[in-house]
Structures
1.
Amino acid sequence: MARAATTTDAFNAVAEPRRRQILDLLAQGERPVNDLVAQLGLAQPQVSKHLRVLREVDLVRVRDEGRQRLYRLNAEPLRPIRDWLRAYEQMWNERFDLMDTILTELSEEDSDD
Amino acid sequence: MARAATTTDAFNAVAEPRRRQILDLLAQGERPVNDLVAQLGLAQPQVSKHLRVLREVDLVRVRDEGRQRLYRLNAEPLRPIRDWLRAYEQMWNERFDLMDTILTELSEEDSDD
DNA sequence: TTGACGTATTCCGTTATGGGTATACGATTG
DNA sequence: CAATCGTATACCCATAACGGAATACGTCAA
């Protein structure tokens, strides 16, 4: 088996920085493809391909307007990511494992990669 | 260019479900590899390989204990993901897109947040 | 020492990515 | 109708993932 397809879920779709950029742009409102092309500095076909991936995981929706296609964001599929991260949030805000951290740093003097 | 390496950042590392499972298990505390192998029902080499990826993005740290290697979670690298998601959270809580919100709520009457 | 244990690494094959480039296709304009 | 615009798709290539299987390596026990 190879790596899971980018269209498997939002986790995979969003792993690509360009696609995150696209979502960020669409967060500001509906945009035609060429707008995104201009802002991203990418070639049009690549943008269309990224949009396809995002469409397949329903992170964006399209609307035809004459010869343009207006894309807009649908943040809903990001929810599972947020939900998964929830369990880890307290680990940043509180200090559960100060001791662990210290121990780790101590034992990292000889272990390397 | 091919897809970005899984070790590029937490986004990519965490796109793989198995690795998320591993982190979930480690969230409960330090564990030796064989523990993870048992819980995941995966072959040992695959687990070691996943752990390597997680190590390379610093999502886990290791500590040698005799012939075992105890892995523990380091949630810090997840932060950029959460930070990125931040901009989208309000889209669930507030109603940017009224129509979508209504539809979403209708289909979510049994789940809460 | 030898052997068993715990874990990491290597090699293989299959699959799909993402960029580049060319092109197809629908809608609009002249 | 032809030409053009806006966008999607088809191909090609280089890269690497993931699982499977075999094996290497360090540590501990007998």
2.
Amino acid sequence: MMATSKSEQAYTLLSDRIASGALVPGYRLVLGTIAAELGCSVVPVREAIRKLEAEGLVLFERNVGATVASVDTELYLHTMQTLSVIEGAATALAAPLLTPEDLGRARAINESLRQTLTDFDPRRFTELNNQFHAALYENCPNPHILDLVHRGWARLAAMRTSSFDHVPGRAHHSVAEHDGLLDLLATGAPAEEIERAARQHRTNTLNAYLAAAGQPPSAI
Amino acid sequence: MMATSKSEQAYTLLSDRIASGALVPGYRLVLGTIAAELGCSVVPVREAIRKLEAEGLVLFERNVGATVASVDTELYLHTMQTLSVIEGAATALAAPLLTPEDLGRARAINESLRQTLTDFDPRRFTELNNQFHAALYENCPNPHILDLVHRGWARLAAMRTSSFDHVPGRAHHSVAEHDGLLDLLATGAPAEEIERAARQHRTNTLNAYLAAAGQPPSAI
DNA sequence: ATGTACGAAATCGTATACGATCCATCATGC
DNA sequence: GCATGATGGATCGTATACGATTTCGTACAT
């Protein structure tokens, strides 16, 4: 009858809205309101919020309520740093399993990225950029690492604000670095080298943000 | 009146029991039973289980129920691999903040470890080993990474089985590798080098397990 | 004007209740 | 004997209800 439970529906709904930015950080999540909108009672909504809390997407205060995790520059940058580490590992682990078709798709996506550079649209760039990296690490044989990458992205998406959407010139470098990464993968470079390159690519972006925030570059 | 909510009590209770091994993997968590034991209704227990599910400690199947995440050799090893990556990064990031006192404490713990080698007790060794590593990475400036390390340990503790408690000879190597790591830290080696050493140390343990399971060593 | 006390409204936390679903057991037919 | 289908019990999923707690506005005293 019902394919998914109401608590899962609530979880998906809220999760999507936070990721899409429809629910801005700091927004107050009132149980009754959400329940009314979903056409259910508060119990499933509470469960959904508990899950979101465990993932760090919302803050839950006893007897006060839940709010979308607030934008915290520091946390945002820390999450990026974490992601650079995890995604580097994921890419290295997935590399031996990449088929020529996978690489071809990744190259095609990167060409699309290159085209967006002339008429830059941050949202589209981010979207394609995610697709590019996902293509490289998606068949990582360690599901645990893959899960962490996905969670990391969810957090970043939830916290993304206009102030971080674009660092001038970074997009051009990014596309070029993608080329380098693809070449490494095509030549079957050792795992360690791939990991270093993938992480460095992410760290470069992180450092661009850090520099914009007047902070020293990442130590790793 | 009530310091913590019942759902948090339930969460803590179950979390502790799983970590301590009192609840073995595969154990069926029946809402009503747990609720009765806690002296509360099922609603808070459900919330607690949702949180545990989000952390990967329990499996939750719709209309069927929750079970403690089952022992899965593959998942166990994957979690170790993940931890080697995260903990390496955490150690590298924490290294510049280590005080001589911190290093002294770590050395003392490693000496305790060395002493246990003569009359080997796997449980005590594991406990001290955790203390040693925690001393090195505990003041990692990236709370997100630190959180992942803690969660990784919780998962490993929850899944630990007798079959993985001990790989012959590994403990001796481990203590020696600790010495090497301490020396690196004392001389203020670059972050990259520390990360590699910390990760390699973990990867060696992982590979010992993999070898025992007749599998090839980790690629990273 | 500022701070405090109080009361009302909003919201949370959880017990209870009951329908929905699943699983095990047993009966039935082949 | 084995497959198939019915039945009862166990368990889950969630609506509802109500007490507990916080928050906010208002009145009052300083």
